[in-house]
Structure prediction request, 232 residues.
Amino acid sequence: MNWQTLASALFGEAHTIERRGDVICGTAQLQGQTLAVVGTTDHAAIGVETALAQAKFILDTVQNHPGRAMLLLVDTQGQRLRHRDELLCINRYMAHLGCCVDLARRSGHRVIGLVYDQALSGGFITSGLMADSCHALPEAEIRVMRLPAMSRVTKISEEVLQALSLSNPVFAPGVENYVAMGGIQSLWAGDLQASLLAALADANTADQRAAMGATRGGRKLASEVTRRVLLA
Prediction:
């Protein structure tokens, strides 16, 4: 689903969302409340400019519209792999974006993430996964690291990782596996506006991902390990 179709499904004509390069941003009206909407499109590779543009929109919302709910729309292939971006410390800019989302949450803004197309690597970690809750469309594609890259990092053969991915969601891409692990709270199908309203109405802003992963069987130890660390 492209962002224009998504915006229409969520808000009808009651929005000012527009595209600026790979960034989409604007405001929308939903049952009497105004939402700030920001994200990326066309499988954007998150470079310095893209990260800063999203961060600026979020900071402007925090400064000028206290308490306004935010919707983060995710469609990214991850960080841009260019020498220029590495020299400019893309890791710091992406961390800055994540910190801005965290600041918005701590400042009383309800922040909802929605993966509507593709979510890969750091571009997903510093946006949708920083929200109060992150949701996805059923046809979305989600993975943080491809198995060949995971093999190089972990020094485990790709064949072994491929076998593990058949039974363990931690090693497998796909939106269903991220639901099982708790990274995606729910899939939105059918009435997308109703799904967004339900997410905004959920008053629980605590991080429930580890607990959901344990309940759903996708991450069986994270919640218990976290509990033991906190008690230590």
